[in-house]
Amino acid sequence: MKDLTNGSIVRHILAMAPPIMVGMVTIMICQLVDLYFVSGLGDAAVAGVAAAGNAGFLVNGLMQVLGVGAVALIAHAVGRKDRADANLIFNQAMVLSVLFGLLTLVAGAALSRAYMRAIAADQATIEAGTTYLLWFMPALALQFATQVMGSALRATGIVRPVMLVQTLAVAINIALAPVLISGWGTGYALGVAGAGLASSIAVAVGALMLLVYFCKVERYVAFNAAQWRPQPRHLKRILNVGLPAGGEFAMMFIFMAVVYYVLRDFGAAAQAGFGIGQRVLGLINMPALAVGLAAGPIAGQNVGAANAARVRETFVKAALIVTLVMAGFMILAQLKPELLLGGFSNDRETMEIAYLFLRIISLNIVAQGLIFTCSSMFQALGNTKPVLLTSATRVFTYSLPAIWLSTRPGFRMEHVWYLSVATTTLQAGLSLWLLRREFNKRLTLAPKEEKAPEQESPEPIAPLAREPV
């Protein structure tokens, strides 16, 4: 366990963010490698895998329910020096991870084809996306457990083991992708099914490695079979914090589904170009997301320690770092988009669409970085409802105008991307305003030395107040 209530905040962020980013970047690279090898199968295969990947946003929403709830509550417990509560939350979150994993497998088997029919441009894309999803679902199901284990470590200030596990798992995926997709060395190509299978095998290996780490090395939080009996009061604590954050990913799923819906009349090349550009954009966003994920446990431990000034300082320092980094990427995307997008498709039309998408959408990446930072602060405070509110606002202000524009004469695909820039900027402004209000309300409830009495409340746990044990 690493105490984040003392020492330089910038030093803590810079120490934690790179391993977090490496882990996320390797996962994103894995997805891009899948797209690279799948691109040889044609535009329908690329569009199908990219569209199917959007379903991951919905499953990621459920993962965030567990991850965000675990990080916030365990970090609070660490800040209070309450190891017993940290272990209880960890084990209750693991129970939920098993239930959510089973739910994902059942829903994936039942709904994959219906989902692809709703958003795909043609029958070939439907078949490719459905096949990929069915083979990719085991990976999504297993990631619930890895999410909880990784979140518990991050809440205690430990990030390097997760990075190493993710990197090794992604290396396995990258090695398997050409073998299973294209039949390298075997002569038996599985196509898009191979892309999903490679990911599922890699995630299974990663989950096993994390399990071994917890059993052999980790000491602060640990598996305890006696705490696996579901305890409604503590499950409610996790869900109170996690559900709104999960709802944010559900909003992202709706947002992406609307994009695919309005682009489907432009054909598979348009959906493929958007899919490639969106994956690369996700890679660009990784530094900002990593800084936000590093800042969350720092702020969370200081919430538990009732150090209001240090919570505010964490936000200011994280926001400054994010703004500088994302401004640099925005300039690169405007001037040299080919450096970021080169090599993902041989189809000229697809790549021209990807270049156009990245040039326009990169105008909002500074705003997106601030959204990530604000979301992490809300998570650290133990109140993620504002995150859901801002995400819903973006979906509402984007979806209806986008669908309306798609019905107008002269509609062009770049119209929906300019609209995305405007609505993301609006979301960033709303997030900053709500965070300022939350700071003023919650960080002045008590002086640093004061401890509120223990009590059970149906509301999200307020900072500077003890959480029920």
Describe this structure in words.
By secondary structure, the chain is mostly helical. Helices cover 79% and strands 0% of the residues. The chain contains 14 helices and no strands.
Keywords:
469 residues; mainly alpha; globular
Question: What best-fitting shape do the alpha-carbon axes yield?
Answer: globular
Helix content: over 70%
How do the SSEs run, as a string of H and E? HHHHHHHHHHHHHH
How far the N terminus sits from the C terminus, by CA atoms, comes to 20 Å
Helix-and-strand structural type: mainly alpha
Radius of gyration: 22 Å
Beta strand count: 0
- Overall mean pLDDT: 82
**What is the beta-strand fraction?**
under 5%
> How many helices?
14
What composes the largest sheet? none
Low-pLDDT stretches are 445-469
Fold blueprint:
Blueprint: H1 9-38, H2 43-79, H3 83-119, H4 123-155, H5 160-182, H6 192-216, H7 232-263, H8 268-304, H9 308-335, H10 338-341, H11 348-361, H12 365-381, H13 385-406, H14 413-442
In short:
With 469 residues, the protein is an all-alpha fold. The chain has helices at 9-38, 43-79, 83-119, 123-155, 160-182, 192-216, 232-263, 268-304, 308-335, 338-341, 348-361, 365-381, 385-406, 413-442.
